[in-house]
Amino acid sequence: xxxxxxxxxxxxxxxxxxxxxxxxxxxxxxxxxxxxxxxxxxxxxxxxxxxxxxxxxxxxxxxxxxxxxxxxxxxxxxxxxxxxxxxxxxxxxxxxxxxxxxxxxxxxxxxxxxxxxxxxxxxxxxxxxxxxxxxxxxxxxxxxxxxxx
Length: 149
What we know:
The protein is mostly helical. Helix content is about 95%, strand content about 0%. It is built from 2 helices and no strands.
């Protein structure tokens, strides 16, 4: 039983580590999604601001500068989208690992419960056998003790 208790402690420790890893992955995935949303919002705001400027008219150099910036912004958004997707994939993998660890902990606990139940049953049977043998000895002595009196 000591070996199983040690195994349970180890599996619980591994589960706790997997849980901490999952929480870290969850924070990073949320941050990546938040950054992606912030970039999308900034791009929309930037386009709206410059749409008014273009209605009033502007030079070709300013238009090229705007287009270059929006192009780089689109690239940054795409890269951040990929990072958010990657973070989500890592989060999903961490969740699967956490579930596996939780399953192992549950399996070890169940094994301990079964072993304890088996040990209790064996002890109960030994106790019953001892009780039965004592009753038989008493039963054998009883009639002889009555005949002697």
